[in-house]
Design brief:
Arc Repressor Mutant, subunit A, three-stranded antiparallel β-sheet, two-stranded antiparallel sheet, 9 helices, 5 strands
Length: 197
């Protein structure tokens, strides 16, 4: 039987989306699932050890070849593109959906304190958020959750990879120690937050 690692590498290379272990096991039925997992672990280590411009990353519940983030400026030169930009309201909405899913539009608006219909529609169109179903309450409002595209975009293996509140607070403390200006989290709608002095 041929060596498994080059086969896995080939499949992952040609796939336009991350390939899960389940999908790989279906494609490679002549190999044992444990063998596939072991070969994937070795491949991840091989790419990391190599120190090249490409890594094998576990994102969105699967494996995908990705460029090393440190070289993104050079890649933008080639593609003449900029990384996706999100408005503050879009980032807030995405964060709320990611951390609180499944969640209704009314719950998002309650947490944000403003209407989020347009932002939610934009996130749906970009396939970062999806409709999971309807909540079993009067009115049966739609409930939302994040997508695999969300995980891919933010290079997350799964939702458990999201930073915890403690990690976010530690990052804020780190910026404060470096003397960087910290912006308040609460600002009245339509008001620019004042820098802390």
């Amino acid at each position: 039987m041929p060596d498994l690692k080059p086969i896995l590498e080939s499949l992952i290379f040609v796939s336009d989306a991350p390939l899960s272990l389940d999908r790989l096991a279906l494609l490679l039925e002549e190999y044992d699932r444990v063998e596939i997992r072991s070969a994937l672990t070795e491949l991840v280590a091989d790419y990391r050890q190599r120190g090249g411009g490409i890594i094998l990353a576990e994102v969105a519940g699967g494996y995908q070849l990705r460029t090393v983030p440190e070289y993104s400026d050079y890649l933008r030169r080639l593609n003449k593109s900029r990384p996706p930009k999100f408005s503050q309201s879009a980032l807030e909405t995405l964060a709320i959906v990611a951390y609180r899913q499944p969640i209704t539009r009314a719950e998002i608006e309650y947490l944000r304190g403003v209407d989020c219909g347009g932002v939610l529609k934009s996130c749906l169109e970009k396939r970062l958020v999806r409709i999971l179903g309807k909540k079993d309450v009067p009115g049966r409002p739609l409930i939302y959750g994040t997508t695999k595209e969300f995980l891919e975009l933010f290079s997350l293996k799964d939702l458990a990879s999201l930073p915890t509140l403690k990690e976010i607070q530690a990052l804020g403390d780190h910026f404060a120690e470096e003397g960087q200006q910290e912006l308040p989290l609460e600002a009245a709608p339509g008001q620019n937050p004042e820098p802390r002095t």
